[in-house]
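The following block was generated as part of the benchmark described in Methods. Ligand: F0G.
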Amino acid sequence: MSTWHGLINSGYRRWLPVTDDTPAVSLHEGNTPLLRSAHLSALTGCEVWLKVEGANPTGSFKDRGMTVAVSRAAEAGAETVICASTGNTSASAAAYAARAGLAAAVLVPKGAVALGKLGQAVRYGAQIVEVGGTFDDCLRIARDLAAHHPVALVNSVGNELRLAGQRTVAYEIVDALGDAPDIHCLPVGNGGNITATWRGYQTYIAENLATHLPRMWGFQAAGAAPLVRGEPVAEPETAASAIRVGNPATWDGSVTARDESGGLIAAVTDEQIFDAYRMVARHDGVFAEPASAAGIAGLLDRHRNGHLAPGQQIVITLSGDGLKDPDASLRDGYTSTQTSTATADVARALRLAA
Ligand code: F0G
């Protein structure tokens, strides 16, 4: 039995910007499940796979980049890491900082972060600053502070370390499938993940470990779709709070991934996102957070409009765990039955014959 000890301690280490002097700050991130979706495959006539990034230690793909960024920050002697976040980056930065014995400061848009993510950052001991603005304001401030104070910025902007770590998702996918898929669908917020995933596939081509590249299909929420509109959105709005970003820091990288791959970045409505969120839980047993479902929503939209040829192999990134945002799950309302402690009463509630 082989054992997994995280990305820096894996065979992928050779493609990560670390040296023998870099301490491996790891929570054994990576090596996440790649599940075939029988439901989505039947629905689309394609082979559809789900890359379940919620299975990472803090519940999102952010851990792939954070292990590298915080390891290198620790190596450089940093005492404090700082980031702006819609929630997941802050949870991940706080966890890896705790593991490394560093302080973490996280800037989040006030009142706009899912409960689970805030709960994580609190418990990992981060200093939390709720900024009365958008994620984009938080990022501007975090960059400013890092430029003028002794704090290490661990956002992917200007931090190739994060993107280098996030590339590993593509390595795992090709290693599992034996080659790259035809299409890779994923949600797009700040643009780092589509950029990193694309570069990961390119690395595997350069190393002769894949025979072709996928088309990258990125999806933004309709109310927060600057890359689709071609200009920043001042007041981004979507119930998928993780991707409520109006001015993506990795703008050029996202556009490059789209264009070089012959892919697209399109918008999906919140209704489509939440339909997909319910569907993947109900039919595949995967509870992913709402923003995570944008890739599925986009794929289904393309299929419905006749823009998806059958027979293709498709991978969809499910970027974060549904437990991050319990409110989103319960917002629909739900039914349950109240009973006494008598077995017969419970049997009646379940309509089981006496
Ligand atoms: N999915 C989830 C669950 C996310 O948290 C994010 C980004 C994305 C998708 C989009 O990835 O930004 O690389 O395009 N969350 C950032 C954060 C903004 O602060 O946690 P991206």
